[in-house]
């Protein structure tokens, strides 16, 4: 027990001396005892000095101890006071104890033992009081800390009663976000939360808390987005995170603790992004529609130009006339290359570029490809050679058409920029063997004009040209060939690089992965027919362009087929009412009734012709991916301008499959 400071309020000097002597004999250490004879002196002393306890005589001049006790308790509520009296009046004792006295001693009964016991009790009470004060101080600090967090948090913090629909607690952020002042009542007993919840979200709000009351477990966090109403009527979006805070006697959630943040700006950005996406999709649709229309309008006359040029080249013309026809064909082919570049680029951008996977003879495909370039190579006296490493598999799995397209672009590019007397070498190497698949490295090297180092990094960009405007004008091209080549290579999970030196030539290297083909492929492979007869088959063709009708008549007559050619879909329906057909060639864009409408009517009103294969005959290269056309379930597609071998290949594929050899095709 530490040394005590004691204030003795006693007007009798003898009693004061006796009490001091008894205190000093008790088992406590006393630091100082101050004596005051009057109440006013005691009060003045307490203003500058705080004792550990007070001994107070009940009988004092001008006042009594009870009144002084009350005044002391106002100054120091927790200061221990022991009342002394020369009378043994229990009523006085009760009054003093009620006023806050620690103990009551008649002066005649004061002993050293009683004082020692009183001091120990007092010390214990002082320790308890210090502990209480410390705990109270700590609690106050924690409350202040929590209140500061709640009030200064940038998030809304709240507790609501979802049984009575009343607000129990919320911080200032809800008012700040919704534009209310401290004096505004944002939730009252009459309208609940309807004042601040967006009208359109009222039902969502109540459903959410119905779910919270019955189904959410303690500790489970539930997130929800709501729209609130700003004081000025604006729409405010918030996202809440809530947990059950209190349950009623039935175990149902009654109170919910939640936090919320304002996500209005995020919602506005999302809305703008959605609109931007819609605008981009609309722009893409408009571009696709334009390209589709352009494709149809250009390909339709090109079909006649290329088709009839091919037919005329098989006739007996003078050498000069044949050269003129070759010039027409060369020009038409160049125009188709430009058109195909633009359309392929658009397909890739629109995500409509499809890759196939089938077995093919790599050496054979590349040999055919080089033969197509041999004529142009001979015209420029270019030495075109092909090298195929022995360890490269001959039969592989992949997309032969896209591989062909890559090499056509690369060889065509080399052919364009290689001067007369130069060379072009195409080589195939085994880059890596993975067991079930292989990485092949295909290289196209030339002795052309080359590409400067500062241009090598842009040659694969859209519409980019590695050479000057004068060179571009001289050599021609859209600047899309290498861009499309790179994009196709990437779609095939491959890579393409270029090495070049200005004036010395260029080497393009493409690495692609292919599966290994089966050994039975060679046995199953059948050579393309040199000539073919459709004798005994009836074909119904719908084509509105006169030049294309003439071309179809010539080809179908050559192939010995019976046929009917219609100008539109309405005539097709009339022909089906009058007779049976083995196959239908249906142009999609026609006057009076288009091919899509005709196809739907055939499916709905001509069930007897459901077995007849229908090939979409179109100049629209996007047709296969159009939802409306997909829904028609065409058996196949032939894109105009077509080559005779492409058309007969499509026809024979479906005639053989659908007739089970009952009328076998004659291959001569």
From TrEMBL:
SUPFAM superfamilies: ATPase domain of HSP90 chaperone/DNA topoisomerase II/histidine kinase (SSF55874), CheY-like (SSF52172), Homodimeric domain of signal transducing histidine kinase (SSF47384), PYP-like sensor domain (PAS domain) (SSF55785)
Statement: the UniProt record of this protein carries the keyword Nucleotide-binding: yes
Leading EC class: transferase
All residue ranges annotated as the Histidine kinase domain in the record: 293-516
Pfam families named in the record: HATPase_c (PF02518), HisKA (PF00512), PAS_3 (PF08447), Response_reg (PF00072)
Ranges for domain PAS: 142-219
Keyword Protein transport: no
EC number: 2.7.13.3
Modified residues (4-aspartylphosphate): 57, 587
Coiled-coil blocks: none
Domain Response regulatory: 5-122, 538-655
Gene Ontology terms, MF aspect: ATP binding; phosphorelay sensor kinase activity
UniProt keyword annotations, A-Z: ATP-binding, Kinase, Nucleotide-binding, Phosphoprotein, Transferase, Two-component regulatory system
Sequence ranges assigned to domain PAC in this UniProt record: 222-275
Entry superkingdom: Bacteria
Catalytic reaction equation(s): ATP + protein L-histidine = ADP + protein N-phospho-L-histidine
NCBIfam families named in the record: sensory_box (TIGR00229)
Subunit architecture: At low DSF concentrations, interacts with RpfF.
Name of this chain's protein: Sensory/regulatory protein RpfC
Organism: Dyadobacter pollutisoli
Organism ancestry: Bacteria, Pseudomonadati, Bacteroidota, Cytophagia, Cytophagales
